[in-house]
Amino acid sequence: MNVALATFIPHDNGPAAINECCNWFRKRIEELNSEKHQLMNYHHEQAVNCLLGNVFYERLAGHGPKLGPVTRKHPLVTRYFTFPFEDISLSAEESMIHVPNKACFLMAHNGWVMGDDPLRNFAEPGSDVYLRRELICWGDSVKLRYGKKPEDCPYLWAHMKKYTEITATYFQGVRLDNCHSTPLHVAEYMLDAARKLQPNLYVVAELFTGSEDLDNVFVTRLGISSLIREAMSAYDSHEEGRLVYRYGGEPVGSFVQPCLRPLMPAIAHALFMDITHDNECPIVHRSAYDALPSTTIVSMACCASGSTKGYDELVPHQFLKSGFTPNGILQHHHPALVKLTPKVALLRPGVLSIGFTKSSEPRVYVDQVDADIVAVTRHSPSIHQSVVSVSRTAFRNPKTSFYSKEVPQMCIPGKIEEVVLEARTVERNTAPYRKDANSINGIPNITVEIREHIQLNESKIVKQAGVTTKGPNEYIQEIEFENLSPGSVIIFRVSLDPHAQVAVGILRNHLTQFSPHFKSGSLAVDNADPILKIPFASLTLAELNQVLYRCESEEQEDGGGCYNIPNWLPLKYAGLQGLMSVLAEIRPKNDLGHPFCDNLRSGDWMIDYVSNRLISRSGTIAEVGKWLQAMFFYLKQIPRYLIPCYFDAILIGAYTTLLDVAWKQMSSFVQNGSTFVKHLSLGSVQMCGVGRFSSLPLLSPSLTDVPCRLNEITREKEQCCVSLAA
After folding, report:
1. Which residue windows are coiled coil (predicted)?
2. How far apart are CA 725 and CA 205, in angstroms?
3. Is 56 within the bounds of a domain?
């Protein structure tokens, strides 16, 4: 009222002026009331829509639980609030709100709000979630009121801290269920307490924020190790393959990263699940035939993976979330399928039988063969063996949907050593599924036929396999399928063809002089080119200028120029620095789609340019070119998809060695200086060089040790002093 009196002031004390102010006041009150009326109508409309949506899902929807008649156990709408008293009338409940020692026992259920801001507490003042019936409520839990700090509710904070510490004492990992609905400051406090007891605590979180930016807020503040990702969310095989590509690890042919690398944006590490206990059974939404191929696709991802009990047993309903306690055990009607998941899981990193070690995490390549077939390759970057799985998904029931018998031919680079595993989902002649009231039972008439470690010609899925070439050094096996029915998988073990395997082994052996990383998979030879043993130590700073730098105009003076990358830009320098500057941008991002990498995969033009440019010069510079040429001899013999990463490894080794040669010729101030000082000193090597046509006046003949050279045109001796480039 004080605000109203201060706002609506009559211009005089007459009755007309007072009446006018009262009318303005009445009009403003009506406007405010209308706004609130519209807001309440909006809330009311939303609440009705949410109630209708809930009733439709629970009782009418084909994918819902179909609860049937309204009963006390299954009321028409979900109960949002609970209290530890006997059921009383609505008027008695309302009166209880105003009794302090009773009101403190009235509790709101917790739950999930679709599309809500996960950083906001939907139960705090200012939220209309409960009023608008937007909460997807969980009847078995209540929303805890922590406040902003432990002092706001000492008992609750202390109680939950004790529970967290007990958990961390006995377990090395925890799962943050519904992490998006847990206040961040509370989760931080509890995880800090857990990490004091378990410093290397593995934290996996169920986090659905709808935004990777918001995901990163939770990941960075809480130190989450892995986020749960669900293959069940895929609506078709293409999306399922995309999830493997997104979360399944680095792509095949990735660059070798240095020990110290720039911090780059990245997605959170995934715990990739075929289904979780929250998912509706995929057998209902897809088909029983899809369990085998989808499990295989998930297991091929190079990240943490998991499943839910009952999926392997083909139980066609949820039971871990329903509170169902069986009197009997889980029935196994098809032990072959139960045993398959660990067999596929053996194709994960660290299994020596296929050459994966912890120091060389496998790379992943996903190929969408057709609308239903997904091929996933796991590739060892050290020994270059691969495991290739080909899975024909069955998102639609093959008994009621059409699947073409014509399966596309598939090309697999390299040599197929064996069929590690082939499996088919088949139907057997038994009674159809009936849900057991006393035990958890799966579908009895679906089983899996498995064959392991067989030769290609023994396969019942592969019709024939031929060998062809792609370019001079890349061999490909063409696979033609005859029995890859929906619900089938076949897994090959593949190696490079013998010629390429030897070449990459020798190349890795020579790269060990720069980094021990390449020792795994290396192959020592006695008849290597002698030039590969020649060090770069005899290069002068002037010669290093030509090897490392030289801009376009300087290079044109010698009749050359900087390398021009098609569909992109010319390099800034003709020397190694021009290449290294581009690679320094590509390598941390692993940008294998860059035009620079495309050019390397397409042909040997850039490779030949680097070596031939130096060989055309004389003396020690030519020796560097011959060293590169000898290394590139092996590089050209490996598959094209591996050339960018090995080209980068060769240049890094040569480049860092040449920088050391330069610094050793400088003063002790530079040699013992910081990284900044050393890199700053390279400006002298960059800016000072010897041109083809000397433009400096002759120095006195009385001076000694004046550098000279033989003029290629006049064939006369001339001075060739280093000059500062303008």
Report:
1. none
2. 58
3. no
Residue-level pLDDT at 656: 93
Whether 482 and 530 map to the same domain: the answer is no
Residue 481 and residue 513 in one domain: no
Strand order in the sheet with 304-306: 173-176, 202-205, 226-230, 270-273, 304-306
**Unique residue bearing structure tokens 């009235």:** 106
- Asked if 229 and 281 sit in the same domain, the reply is yes
Residues 287-316 as b or e (16 or more Cβ within 10 Å = b): bbbbbbbbbbbbbbbbbbbebbebbbbbbb
Residue partners of 38: CB distance under 8 A and separation at least 6:
none
The count of C-alpha atoms lying within 13 angstroms of the C-alpha of 67, restricted to the half-sphere facing its C-beta, is 16
Distance CA 124, CA 539 (A): 72
pLDDT for residue 155: 95
Judge residue 366's burial from the number of C-beta atoms within 10 Å of its C-beta, 0-12 exposed, 13-18 middle, 19 or more buried: buried
Positive or negative torsion for Cα 195, 201, 207, 212: positive
Q: Provide the 3-class DSSP secondary structure of residue 338.
A: helix
Residue 233 CB neighbour total at 10 angstroms:
12
344 and 488 in a common domain: yes
Question: In 10 A of CB 470, how many CB atoms?
Answer: 12
Using N-to-C axis directions, what is the helix angle for 595-602 and 605-615, rounded to 10°? 80
Say yes or no: 314 and 460 in one domain: yes
Active site residue 180: yes
Burial (CB count <10 Å: 0-12, 13-18, 19+), residue 262: exposed
330 in Cβ contact with 310 (< 8 Å): yes
- The pLDDT tens digits of the residues spanning 684-708 come to 999 888 877 666 777 777 787 777 7
Q: Give the containing element (helix H, strand E) for 494.
A: strand 488-495
Is residue 161 a part of any domain in this protein? no
Catalytic, 192? Answer no
pLDDT at res. 159: 96
Alpha-carbon distance of 442 to 334, in angstroms, equals 9
Distance CA 470, CA 641 (A): 12
Residues 554, 534 within the same domain: yes
Cα(28)–Cα(34) distance, integer angstroms: 10
Residue 528 and residue 490 in one domain = no
Asked whether residue 170 is assigned to any structural domain, the reply reads no
Q: How far is CA 717 from CA 43, 697, 700, 709, 713, in A?
A: 95, 15, 15, 6, 11
Domain of 585 in residue numbering reads as 501-708
Number of domains in the chain: 4
Q: What is the pTM of this model?
A: 0.82
Could you tell me if 451 and 544 lie in one domain?
A: no
Eight-class DSSP state of 277: T
The catalytic position among 116, 128, 177, 367 is 177
Active-site hit among 215, 274, 278, 497: 278
CB 648 within 8 A of CB 258: no
Q: Are 321 and 281 in contact (CB under 8 A)?
A: no
Q: Which of 180, 334, 384, 517 is catalytic?
A: 180
No. of H helices and E strands in the chain?
21, 21
Q: Rounded to an integer, what distance in angstroms lies between the CA atom of residue 512 and that of residue 535? A: 14
217, part of any domain: no
User: Distance between CA 293 and CA 486 in Å, rounded?
Assistant: 9
pLDDT less than 70: residues of the chain: 319-360, 471-473, 535, 693-695, 712-713, 725-726
Q: Model confidence over 340-354: pLDDT tens digits?
A: 665 665 554 333 334
